[in-house]
Task: structure prediction
Amino acid sequence: MEPRHWGVLLLCLLLGACDPSPPPPAGFAGLGQDAAAFATVVRGQPLQFPRDHGAHAGYRIEWWYVTANLRDAQGRDWGAQWTLFRSALRPGAEQPGWASPAVWLGHAALSGPFGHQFSETLARGGVGQADVQAQPFKAWIDDWSLQAVGGQGIEQLQMRAGGKGFSYDLQLSSQQPLVLQGDQGYSEKSGQGQASYYYSQPFYAVRGEVQHEGRRVEVTGNAWLDREWSSQPLAPDQHGWDWFSLHLDNGTRLMLFQVRQADAQPYRAGTWIAADGSSTALNGAQIVLEPLARTQLVDGPQVPTRWRVQVPDRQLDIEVDALVPQAWMGTRFPYWEGPVKVQGSTAGRGYLEMTGYSR
Amino acid sequence: MIGLCLQALLSHWRRHPLQCASILTGLWLATTLWAGVQALNQQARADYARANALLTGAAQAQVSPRHGERFDQHAYIQLRRAGWPVSPVLEGRLRFAGAEPVSVKLLGIEPLSLPPGSAIAGQAAQRIDPAAFIGPPGQAWIAPDTLQRLGLAPGAEPLSGDGQRLPPLQVQAQLAPGVMVVDIGQAQRLLQAPQQLSRLLIPAGYTPPALPEGLNELLVVQAASDTDDLQRLTESFHLNLTALGLLAFLVGLFIVHAAIGLALEQRRSLLRTLRACGVSVRALVTALAIELGLFALLAGLAGVACGYLLASLLLGDVAASLRGLYGAQVAGHLSLPLHWWLSGLAISLLGAALAGAGSLLRAARLPLLALAQPQAWRQAQGRWLRRQALLALLLLAVALGCWRWGASLPAAFTLLAALLLGAALMLPLLLDGALALLQRLCHRPLAQWFVADSRQQLPALALALMALLLALAASVGVGSMTSGFRQTFLGWLDQRLSAELYVTPHDTAQGLAIAAWLPTQPGVRAVLAQWRTEVRVGGAPVQVQGVIDHPAYAQHWPLLEQRSEAWRQLASGAGAMLSEQLARRLALGLGDRLSLPGAAPLDVVAVYADYGNPRGQVLVNADWLRRTWPEATLNTLNLRVAGEQVATLKAALQQRYALDGTRLVDQRTLRRWSVEVFERTFAATAALNSLTLGVAGVALLISLLTLGQSRLGQLAPLWALGVRRQHLAWLSLGQTLLLASLTVLLAIPLGLLLAWCLVAVVNVQAFGWRLPLQVFPGQLLQLALLGLFTTLLAAAGPLWQLARRQPAELLRHYADGT
Result:
């Protein structure tokens, strides 16, 4: 099980049943039936760029996901999230106009000294309201965009989004190579033979401007891009996960997650990415995750917002603490996502995502 | 105590079942008509609400095209990319071929961008299953009654008149009638409007910035209040129905009042006995009130049930009228809330209370020892008559005031109500005066008795005669108005429908192709292309129709008033002609200047009648229209064709351009459709009207029946003096007919006055057109005879009884009377 696959759940719920209560396992079996008609993910298929920066018609689900940890001149921490999902209502090639099978979903959020604000938008494919093109790279929905600035590929990006009372306009840049997750971008799921294509760019340096209630603030920081596409549905007994993407001060990037399962120990996995971009997979036995403190959300459930994270093999023992404990995404299908600060054997910062917590 | 008292009181009805029946009948009829009319209004209003709630919070601002009805969806994408949270809507009419072509309003929506909190067909936007709704195959939402009207089954995938396959039909109970909701993409395909949108919804709470450069010329942001045309348009129609219902209710109450009053007179001795036995006034009045309440409850239940029945019988016609007149969609079946049933019962109770209040008051004041004095009635009547006359004068003054200074529909109806009531109240006085005059001319004793006794009968019959007067006058008024309108309308239609064949092309391109092809065909004498666009003037939509310069218009387009050279000025692009409705609404007349948004001002050179079009219309030159609004569409082609070539040409057009029966209509069919719409429009009015006349007949019958009983006392002395029974019966019939004839004579001028009020005041306020007042003597004669016949029928029963009275009975009455 790779991180952020809750997105699959979210969109399947949104577009399939449209019922916010958790669906019974049969719902997933139903999805499994016509998954055959969608394009399948196969091992050994090399990723090609810039083609694979664009949308992959024929696959059921795909996303462009950026989280940025930012700091202003006064040393205050901020966080920005930019997410675009594509979901196909049915298998088959892209079609022009309203007949397009694609549906797009955007989430944007800004966290900072003021707290947390978010926005959500939906769009049909085929008419130009939302789309992603590979070259020059441009992803957009309404007035939100993530697009290449000059050059080839995604080395230089401009990231813009906003909602009621907030907006951001950030420039992302990185000369580091892309990190292909799993086996050269073929990323296997836990135990069930499911897989996705998955690559990341966790090394972006960021500068730009965030705006809250009309006040503009110059910021700098780091950002992490995840790209993933697949057609496989979820296992029925997985009801939520906790996902960490951390920028450590020594230049290391660390991705860790656990999937909480109904009748079993949580499934854990991760990737250790050295400062030079070389990555090593971490298995469950190498990871210790322990919630330390919970926060009662004003308009949501109780969630663990302080964690102890250990990777003993790498001499890592840190405490991860939410910058804004109330970073609740009260979207159609709600979840917690916000910036965190890291203290302990090494310092740093990052993003935490938690799904599947109910009131 | 009250129980015993009630028992004693109720025993009266066992001996006088007729009176009992008359009270019940009166209340029953009154409640039936009132509840029926209210049911019609209720249903129609509920359906407007459903139509309005089609996309709610419909109290939403929206972005509309500045000109024309549609715009390119690129504007939508441009606004979304600029951050506007708008949602696209495409509307149009979808036709279905058939023996009688049906069209529904097709509403295309985009479920994902619908503003949060909005609801479609009572379904929250978030609850729509987008995958199923968008499809393929998608869904076409339809209300159960529309499905029935189209004769289709749920899940069917019918073809539209243009041969496009619809998505599977899915029934949505909350959907407005005559509407189908589909995905925007499906709507563009079905309406053959690729990339086209009608409007964009703006979510509540979003304050839009100024439109971006380039879109400002194309689109306009409209506040929510501009869009509620239906309610405004149909208000007058419902006020009309309500007025008719109220009239019928009043007539019904006359019956009740008469019967209750009579029952009280007859029970005076019983009441006196009860009082003498120690029953308190309070107990007595309570018992009487309970008795009245029982009547009201019984009759109310029957009335509400019959009202429902009446409404369901008339609903088809009313729905057709509303569709024909205003394009408003009303379901073909009734579904009424509980409060309608309760309010029906309440109105029955209220009616009984109104009609019986006077009697209860009299019972409460009944002097314990006074004898019943029928003759005292007439003396008391004198005072009452004077008061009544004063009230009548006051009402007539109000009517005059309304006519002089009132300028709204409620004022017009107040005028009608005051006029009718005033005239009704004047009736006894006028009849009394007429009889007094007659009395002076009579010298023979029996003749003198004849007139004097008629005057004596007057108070008891007055209410029934008033009911007859009102019903007859309403019949004359409404009948004259309808017949006059019919004549005007048919004449106008014959003139206006001068072309032999009417073609509605799919779009402008096809229209131009057809127009280019037609002149090569044999028998085509002229091709009159009509261009159209729509603008908003003063918040309401106005059709701008462009016609080419052709002598056929000057020959066949009827004008109400015009300046000299009107058609030449129109052709030059300097003049415009207004439909009567629009001219009245904008208060423009000949020589005034008309300013349309985005156009140079035009001189108003003529005003023409445009019956049955709820929207205002401006006629301009086609070239000028296309220069001013390049997006104007080619709406229809009117073809002048040699008679024998019509069928051939029709077939050729059908084949060459794939035009179905709804897009290719010949003159005869179009005329038939128009007349059908017209006939159905007034069918409900006519039905209600004749029912009212029927109620008045029943009122008269009941009054005469009850009177017959008490009149024996007056007739017995004459018999004793030697007048034969048959002779007496004839005399009595003569008396009744005399009174009825006088009433009918008064009803005719009153009815004509009413007709004048309807065509010159009410129609102008309600529909925006004024019709010439036409008098149809044959119709008047027919109604007068009907009134007399009703009277005759009502009088026959009691007279037959009188003629068959045993001499002994008359003898006993004579003895009692003296």
Observations:
- The interface with chain A takes residues 73-74, 76-77, 80-83, 85, 110, 112-113, 126-131, 134, 136, 183-186, 188, 194-195 of chain B (CB under 8 Å).
